[in-house]
Amino acid sequence: MDQFHTNILELLREDSRRSPAVIATMLGAEEEAVKQAIKDLEDDHVIVKYSAVVNWDKVDENKVTALIEVQITPERGRGFDAIAERIYLYPEVKSVYLMSGGYDLLVEVEGKSLMEVAAFVSNKLSPIESVLSTKTHFILKKYKQDGVIFEDHEDDHRLMISP
To answer: Taking every annotated instance into account, which residue ranges of this chain make up the domain HTH asnC-type (predicted)?
Structure first.
C-alpha cells in the first residue's frame, strides 16, 4: 500500500466523517483520486466499517463491559481460528484477539448487567470443549478509547501566588 492510501486511512481513522473534498485539500490531491482510493480501500475490505466512538457513561444506557482472558487448546489443522470463530459469533462478543503470553484469546463482551456477562461466561464460553480456563475483568471506567480521551478537564481558575 502506498503512502497516499495510508494517509487517507489515517485521516479517516481520526474522523470518519471527513469528506473526500476535505481529505483532498489536506493531502493536496484531487478529490476524484481520493474518492477512488476510498472506494478501492472499501472494495478490498481494508476499510471495513465506519463508526462513532461513544462515551456510554454519558448516556442512560446501562452497559457492562468485560475483558475475558481465555486459555484454549488449539484444534488440529485449524489452530485457534475455529475456537475464535465459535466465540466471536455470539452477539454479546464485541472483539476477539489472539494474544501472546499467559492466555490465548482476549474476548471483549458487553451485557446489561454483571450477571448477564457472568451468565455468558458460565453458560456459553466455559462449556466450549477447547476452553481450559477463563479470567474475567470488568471495566469500571473508560478513560480513553480509540485515541479519544473521555475525561472532561476543568481549567484551573485559581490565581497564581508569588512570593
So the answer is: 1-62
Residues facing 138 on adjacent strands: 66
Q: Which of 122, 135, 147, 124 is nearest to 66 (CA)?
A: 135
Q: In sequence order, what are the residues at sequence separation of 6 or more whose Cβ sits closer than 8 angstroms to the Cβ of residue 8?
A: 23, 27, 34, 37, 38, 41
What is the DSSP code string of 31-89?
HHHHHHHHHHHHHTTSS--------GGGSS---EEEEEEEEEPPBTTTBTHHHHHHHHT
Digit-coded pLDDT (tens) for 11-24? 999 899 999 999 99
Mean pLDDT of 118-135: 96
Distance CA 38, CA 2 (A): 13
Amino acid at 5: H
Helix (H, G, I), strand (E, B) or coil at 108: strand
**Cα–Cα distance for residue pair 59/113, rounded to 1 Å:** 16
- Domains belonging to the chain, first-starting first, are 3-43 (1.10.10), 56-141 (3.30.70.920)
Residues 145-155: b if buried by 16+ CB within 10 A, e if exposed: eeeeeeeeeee
Q: What is the mean pLDDT of residues 81-110?
A: 96
